[in-house]
Amino acid sequence: MKKILFGIIALILVVGGAGFAWYKVSYGGGTYYVQITKDGKEQQDTANGQKYTRYSYQMNSYKKDGKEKKVEFTADHNLRKEAYLELTVNSVKGVTSWEEVKKAEVPKEALKKINSNS
């Protein structure tokens, strides 16, 4: 009975670990920061027979240590000018998510780079 229980626990750990690793590779990534300074490029798309508008942004982003990376991402609305964003950038998929943050939440080195390139 103990062997079966240990076997089940080991199987759960292996499957859970593999699932976590897949999630990190697919959706995880590094954190970068940007400031929106201009309107996004408007794009008209169609999905399931419905038309919708997306706004595309291409810009340099910065890690907390100031390391630069060119990124491209979209939003379903035109983002607020002067807004600071925290991006999750996956090495395979590019930007997987973004969130507006306050200026005080942007690391100093990244903020310095953002301000010098504005």
What does this protein look like?
The protein has 118 residues and is of the alpha+beta class. The protein has a single domain (29-116), classed as Beta Barrel (OB fold (Dihydrolipoamide Acetyltransferase, E2P)). It contains two helices and six strands; from the N terminus they run H-E-E-E-E-E-E-H. It has helices spanning 2-27, 108-116; strands at 30-35, 41-47, 50-62, 68-75, 84-90, 94-101. The strands form two sheets. The protein has a three-stranded antiparallel beta sheet. It has a three-stranded antiparallel beta sheet with strand order 2-3-4. It is flat, with a radius of gyration of 20 Å. The protein starts with a helix and ends with a helix.
List the helices and strands and how they pair.
Layout: H1 2-27, E1 30-35, E2 41-47, E3 50-62, E4 68-75, E5 84-90, E6 94-101, H2 108-116
**Quick one: CATH superfamily?**
Protein of unknown function DUF1093
Side-by-side strand order of the widest sheet? 1-5-6
Query: Which architecture does the CATH hierarchy give at level 2?
Result: Beta Barrel
Uncertain regions spanning at least 5 consecutive residues: none
The biggest beta sheet reads: 3 strands, antiparallel
Q: Would you tell me the structural class of the helices and strands?
A: alpha+beta
- The strand count comes to 6
Task: Give the key terms.
118 residues, 30% helix, 2 helices, YxeA family protein, DUF1093, OB fold (Dihydrolipoamide Acetyltransferase, E2P), flat, YxeA-like_sf
